[in-house]
Write a structure and sequence with these properties.
It is a single chain. This protein has 183 residues and is an alpha/beta fold. It has a domain of 93 residues. 46% of the residues lie in helices and 23% in strands. The chain has eight helices and four strands. Helix 3 crosses helix 4 and helix 4 runs antiparallel to helix 5. The longest helix is centred in the first third of the chain and has 18 residues. The radius of gyration is 19 Å and the shape is globular.
């Protein structure tokens, strides 16, 4: 639909504070790739999020209740509420919002559902983690500054599971520590 056919309200400029620059760049690039404006893609994304929340009615209600009760405590509380809602309707467990996390073989073996790691500054997998286990338990790694893996992990295959990851390195490469993280 061209701008001339849109009601004035639809064309109004809105500002959203606190957007992650990397996420916005990727979102904007996806809009260009699809041949739509960022606003049009944002409308679709927001609509689908609301539909997803409605589909998981109890999870959506819990999220809405949690968001209403947050008030001035938006930051950390909002993240936990969203994580709970996502986990309630998803077929994976979300591990998010950490400065640093070290994951060993035992941690992955005890995971009941596939894992999604998100918003972690440094994510490190122990020397006891092999590709077969990692690929069967880790669905994706998103918005992580640095992922450190042991020898034997195929970096390109791992990278295909990553979004907005700044660096993937094997333990022992320049700037990465050596050591076993067995649990």
């Amino acid at each position: 639909m061209s701008d001339g056919n849109r009601p004035q309200e639809e064309r109004r400029i809105r500002s959203i504070r606190g957007l992650n620059d990397d996420l916005y760049r990727e979102f904007s690039a996806k809009a260009r790739e699809l041949g739509v404006s960022v606003g049009e893609l944002m409308n679709v994304a927001m609509s689908r999020l609301l539909v997803s929340m409605d589909a998981g009615t109890s999870a959506g209600r819990r999220l809405a209740d949690a968001l209403r009760s947050l008030g001035s405590k938006l930051g950390e509380a909002q993240s936990r509420a969203f994580k709970s809602a996502v986990e309630a309707v998803a077929d994976f467990d979300l591990v998010a919002d950490l400065d640093e996390l070290r994951v060993g073989r035992g941690d992955l073996e005890r995971a009941r559902r596939p894992l999604v790691f998100s918003n972690i500054r440094r994510l490190e997998f122990g020397d006891d983690v092999d590709w077969e286990l990692l690929s069967s338990k880790v669905r994706s790694i998103n918005v992580v500054d640095e992922v450190i893996v042991p020898e034997g992990i195929p970096l390109l295959e791992l990278a295909s599971r990553c979004r907005l990851v700044k660096r993937i390195a094997r333990r022992g490469e320049a700037g990465t520590p050596r050591g076993d993280l067995s649990t």
